[in-house]
């Protein structure tokens, strides 16, 4: 059986990279005493995958791991034992047991919802105003940076939704953006386009929180990945 | 914005933010207001180095275990962070509750190597603590230090209020109690320091006066108040089994240098290698029992989830029941997929059997430290190891499927000649030969022999404390020679620049006046001297010049037998006549037996019941 577990990557540890998060989860599993399955071979490792790597610097509210268990385990037991074994910044929110035939989560990810907290109030104001204007455009050009090249692309089709909201004196942008193995729109790309729209030249300092990951239902509508 | 917010902003810009963020598994954040005594543990190097250090983990657990004290960690930030901290006026903050250094009652530096000294000044300044002890007021923390370099505390005397000499486990709590009493009874600094000086193993440098001869040598070191003893005895925890050892240790998120469980199986070493300061300072040898170790390993593994346990000591191969320990650990850990590694293997003590067991889990590269290339030179340094010992172990390793061997040597040892350097190459060549002697189908492919040659630094409390270090020019010439003779297929030669070793030698045997040089160099911008990219030798030389001191006086000068050393008032338990005797034997290339085979009268026998091998056998 496999356990799909939703976990948090807290603000304090947002600078921890994905590889280190993976290792920390693995050590947490080893501390928990839960019967996890190991790979065969010379350097055995825990059979675990993550639905999607979260960027360094971003917090995650509902990140998803997929752990292969060596024995049957109740989801509640999994959550309970893991939460004793994980640091406060990496607690498990919920878990769901699935059988080994359950499709790989990585291939099912379709989109991600982000909360982008703008640290500067004036900048936030300008950005919030620019949202409507930008979304009315036929195309929204942004720069996609890969390891080898930079290319301009239209991110409009990659934005499911975008709106601004002021919470406790700070502007937040809520965005649902495409995230697939084939193409995705990173929060940074969106912010560059929006800053341009708002006429902001200096760098926009923001706190990125990935709220949840989505897959799609048969009719194409988005649904929480861990429930699929 | 307060400094915590500014700190958060700085984190967005620095290279490696995780080294500053904390929140690791098994770290302790106690209630500040409800805990009377606040201890700031300062590791004067980066997070990755500090979090690899066993002493930090021991003292962190030990202080936090007491209901009345808390311990938070501080590390030396990297240069990019330092710039941001200076620009935005962010003080040095603790990893746990992000409080500035100067809010702690006592701050303690661990002195692991001399090249971290400038970081001590940098951390204090960033933390708002006046650098010089005489500049500190009643509101400032008491600054303490311990660790191996505390055995020659003099270069740091102006900056450190009190040094802890020897094993820290007992004296740490005693010291904290005194500082707690300062708080409750309202003692002033002076009173507090005098009380500290009464503790066994505590040296308060301001309570001693140093006078010099005209030529710069020390005339005398005398206490200037009744509380200060003429000689400060090092502390020894006699029974390691009943000494505190942490059962859970912080687990960093990011990879640090030693990212594993370190199980200290014993302390001290009976070999008596004459260059080795640790071998003298950590005497006598004390072992942890098999039962205690297997229990600790179990608990530490459960608390950390680590996948590797390394057995740590100066000479793990000498642990009396090593094969049984390894077998037990491997049996217990197999299910949990935990590998056991033996880091400081001495080439004459590893049983073939244990080698084969290590291999069962992971084939890491094997490390051997013959230290010198010829038998004569190995006899001079009393490294009781023969070429045949080494080659036999290497043979076993190669036929057991290893393909990677690291060999550690030193150059610049007393009495060294060109023949000794050539011996290093001969030995390397023979090691390569052993590999090719194993039939092709039985050996692993891709031979890698790494020869690392470091530069000998004479250290206090060793038989070579009287010796002059090779000058920088001589070291360069020797390195050139080594490059030539070590140009062997399959062999990689790692050498070191002599500048750092030269400065290390100055501090290792420096007196109080070296404190001035340190401060001057720090003011000129010297920090992180242990790192190539930040080490500024030219600035250090300027500092010497401006202080009117000659580095050669400290590093290269051959001392007379009767010279009074800056550290002579520190009692390490090892007697000066014993060390001189050892030096004389070294000059004659005569060896001294392992203390387990009979007491050599090093001096420890004067402390009754401390050394289990004292007075054993015939002297």
Number of strands of chain A: 11
Largest interface: A-B, 29 and 23 residues
Shape of chain A: elongated
The termini of chain A sit apart by 16 Å
Low-confidence stretches of chain B: 346-351
Whole-number mean pLDDT of chain A: 94
How many domains would you count in the coordinates of chain B? Answer: 5
Q: How do the strands of the widest beta sheet of chain B line up side by side?
A: 2-1-3-4-5-6
What's the structural blueprint in terms of helices and strands?
The complex is a heterodimer of chains A (228) and B (619).
Chain A: E1 2-9, H1 18-32, E2 48-50, E3 59-68, H2 75-85, E4 92-98, H3 105-108, E5 111-118, H4 121-136, E6 141-145, E7 150-154, E8 159-167, E9 170-178, H5 187-198, E10 206-216, E11 222-224
Parallel strand pairs in A: 3-10
Antiparallel strand pairs in A: 1-3, 1-4, 2-3, 5-9, 5-10, 6-7, 8-9, 10-11
Chain B: H1 3-13, H2 18-21, E1 37-43, H3 47-50, H4 54-65, E2 69-75, H5 79-87, E3 106-110, H6 117-126, E4 142-146, E5 162-164, H7 168-185, H8 189-197, E6 202-203, E7 208-212, E8 218-223, E9 232-233, E10 261-264, E11 266-267, H9 277-281, E12 286-287, H10 290-304, E13 308-312, H11 322-334, E14 339-341, H12 352-361, E15 366-371, H13 375-380, H14 387-399, E16 404-411, H15 418-437, E17 448-455, H16 472-485, E18 491-495, H17 498-508, H18 514-523, H19 537-547, H20 551-555, E19 570-571, H21 576-587
Parallel strand pairs in B: 1-2, 1-3, 3-4, 4-5, 9-19, 10-13, 13-14, 15-16, 16-17, 17-18
Antiparallel strand pairs in B: 5-6, 7-8, 11-12
Helix pairs in contact in B: 4-7, 6-18, 7-8, 10-11, 11-12, 14-15, 15-16, 18-19
């Amino acid at each position: 059986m496999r356990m799909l577990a939703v976990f948090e990557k807290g603000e304090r540890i947002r600078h921890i990279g994905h590889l280190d998060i993976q290792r920390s989860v693995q050590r947490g599993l080893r501390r928990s005493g839960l019967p996890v399955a190991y790979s065969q071979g010379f350097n055995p490792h825990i059979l675990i995958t993550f639905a999607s790597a979260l960027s360094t610097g971003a917090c995650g509210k509902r990140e998803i791991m997929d752990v292969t268990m060596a024995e049957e385990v109740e989801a509640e037991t999994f959550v309970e034992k893991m939460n004793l074994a994980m640091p406060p910044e990496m607690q498990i929110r919920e878990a769901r047991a699935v059988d080994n035939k359950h499709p790989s989560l990585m291939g099912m990810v379709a989109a991600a919802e982000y909360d982008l907290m703008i640290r500067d109030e004036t900048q936030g104001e300008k950005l919030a105003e620019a949202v409507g204007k930008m979304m009315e455009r036929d195309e929204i050009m942004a720069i996609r940076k890969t390891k080898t090249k930079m290319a301009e692309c239209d991110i409009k089709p990659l934005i499911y939704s975008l709106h601004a909201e002021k919470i406790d004196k700070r502007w937040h942008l809520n965005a649902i953006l495409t995230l697939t193995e084939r193409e995705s729109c990173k929060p940074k790309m969106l912010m560059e386009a929006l800053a341009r729209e708002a006429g902001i030249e200096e760098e926009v300092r923001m706190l990125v929180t990935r709220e949840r990951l989505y897959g799609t239902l048969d009719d194409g509508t988005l649904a929480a990945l861990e429930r699929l | 914005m307060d400094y915590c917010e500014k700190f958060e902003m700085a984190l967005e810009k620095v290279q490696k933010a995780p080294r500053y963020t904390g929140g690791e598994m098994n770290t302790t954040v106690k209630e500040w207001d409800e805990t009377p005594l606040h201890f700031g543990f300062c590791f004067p190097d980066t997070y990755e180095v500090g979090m690899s250090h066993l002493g930090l983990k021991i003292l962190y657990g030990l202080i936090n275990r007491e209901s009345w004290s808390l311990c938070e960690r501080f590390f030396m930030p990297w240069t990019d962070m330092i710039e941001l901290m200076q620009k935005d006026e962010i003080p040095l903050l603790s990893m746990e509750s992000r409080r500035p250094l100067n809010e702690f009652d006592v701050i303690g530096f661990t002195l692991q190597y001399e090249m971290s000294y400038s970081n001590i000044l940098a951390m204090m300044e960033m933390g708002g603590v006046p650098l010089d002890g005489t500049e500190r007021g009643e509101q400032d923390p008491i600054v303490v230090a311990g660790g191996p370099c505390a055995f020659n505390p003099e270069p740091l005397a102006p900056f450190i209020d009190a040094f802890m000499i020897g094993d820290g486990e007992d004296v740490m709590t005693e010291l904290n109690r005194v500082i707690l009493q300062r708080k409750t009874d309202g003692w002033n600094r002076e009173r507090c320091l005098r009380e500290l000086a009464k503790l066994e193993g505590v040296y308060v440098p301001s309570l001693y006066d140093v006078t010099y001869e005209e030529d710069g040598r020390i005339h005398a070191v005398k206490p200037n108040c009744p509380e200060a003893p003429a000689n400060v005895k090092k502390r020894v925890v006699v029974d390691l089994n009943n000494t505190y050892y942490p059962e859970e240790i912080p687990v960093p998120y990011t990879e640090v240098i030693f990212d594993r469980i370190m199980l200290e199986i014993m302390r001290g070493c009976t070999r008596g290698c004459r260059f080795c300061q640790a071998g003298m300072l950590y005497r006598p040898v004390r072992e942890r029992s098999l039962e205690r170790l297997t229990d600790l390993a179990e608990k530490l593994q459960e608390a950390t989830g680590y996948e590797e346990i390394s057995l740590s000591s100066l000479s793990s191969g000498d642990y009396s029941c090593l094969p049984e320990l390894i077998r037990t650990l491997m049996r217990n850990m197999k299910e949990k997929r935990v590998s056991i590694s033996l880091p400081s293997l001495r080439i004459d003590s590893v049983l073939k059997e244990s080698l084969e067991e290590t291999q069962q889990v992971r084939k890491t590269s094997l490390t051997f430290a013959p230290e010198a290339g010829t038998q004569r030179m190995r006899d001079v340094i009393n490294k009781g190891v023969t070429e045949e010992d080494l080659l036999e172990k290497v043979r076993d390793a190669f036929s057991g499927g290893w393909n990677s061997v690291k060999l550690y040597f030193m150059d610049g040892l007393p009495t060294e000649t060109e023949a000794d350097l050539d011996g290093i190459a001969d030995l390397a060549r023979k090691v390569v030969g052993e590999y090719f002697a194993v039939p092709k189908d039985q050996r692993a492919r891709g031979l890698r022999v790494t020869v690392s040659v470091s530069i000998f630094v004479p250290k206090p409390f060793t038989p070579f404390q009287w010796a002059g270090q090779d000058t920088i020019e001589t070291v360069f010439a020797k390195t050139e020679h080594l490059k030539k003779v070590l140009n062997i297929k399959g062999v990689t030669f790692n050498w070191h620049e002599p500048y750092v070793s030269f400065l290390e030698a100055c501090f290792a045997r420096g007196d109080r006046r070296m404190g001035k040089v340190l401060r001057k160099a720090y003011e000129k911008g010297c920090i992180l001297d242990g790192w190539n990219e930040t080490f500024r030798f030219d600035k250090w030389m300027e500092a010497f010049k401006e202080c009117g001191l000659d580095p050669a006086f400290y590093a290269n000068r051959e001392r007379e037998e009767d010279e009074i050393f800056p550290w002579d008032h520190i009692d390490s338990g090892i007697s000066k006549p014993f060390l001189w005797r050892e030096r004389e034997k070294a000059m004659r290339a005569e060896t001294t037996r392992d203390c387990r085979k009979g007491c050599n009268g090093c001096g420890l026998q004067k402390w009754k019941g401390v050394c289990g091998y004292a007075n054993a056998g015939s002297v």
